[in-house]
Write the structure tokens for this entry.
Amino acid sequence: DAKTTQPNSMESNEEEPVHLPCNHSTISGTDYIHWYRQLPSQGPEYVIHGLTSNVNNRMASLAIAEDRKSSTLILHRATLRDAAVYYCILSTTGTASKLTFGTGTRLQVTL
Amino acid sequence: DTEVTQTPKHLVMGMTNKKSLKCEQHMGHRAMYWYKQKAKKPPELMFVYSYEKLSINESVPSRFSPECPNSSLLNLHLHALQPEDSALYLCASSQRQGRGEKLFFGSGTQLSVL
């Protein structure tokens, strides 16, 4: 399975933008890049996903490098409610597709 | 309704007990998943069902037995568990099993094995 590398933790001030990096140098041409987050005492929550082009939704933006070996999740204005573990995941190719979580980045948001 | 409902929320069982975890969704999704999460670790995939058929078993010990009786329901039967099986068990669903699919997770069942 293609692997992802993320920083263990990051800090941000409230109402500032946050850029969460992810390296995935062994990504294959058909792997999607997914981001999920997990708030304390909850199941993971879908944030965004993409294949080649940058993606935007109401929660975040996903910027994908041209060579697809890295990506960045952008939270435009962090709030205290965004404090969570953020997982960058590559979905596997083939008929038995699955999501394998890596270690993730713990985001702390402070006032 | 975009919810995945898991019951019970908490479960304590002895090593000789038999219990079941239940997961339900009414989104018309045809893929369902079981993940196991130990404290401060990422979720680990256990099983995937696609159209009520077992698609992936990640070499899970036979003391865990999944069942998908219909497209809305997923069970995990537990028998002769060990204390190291104590964890948060998460259920998820998606429209189909595929690379670009979005997973919806339940809040999990916190299992303690004594």
About this structure: Chain B has no helices and eleven strands. The mean pLDDT of chain B is 95. The interface with chain A takes residues 4, 35, 42-45, 48, 55-56, 90, 92, 97-108 of chain B (CB under 8 Å). The longest strand of chain B covers residues 18-25.
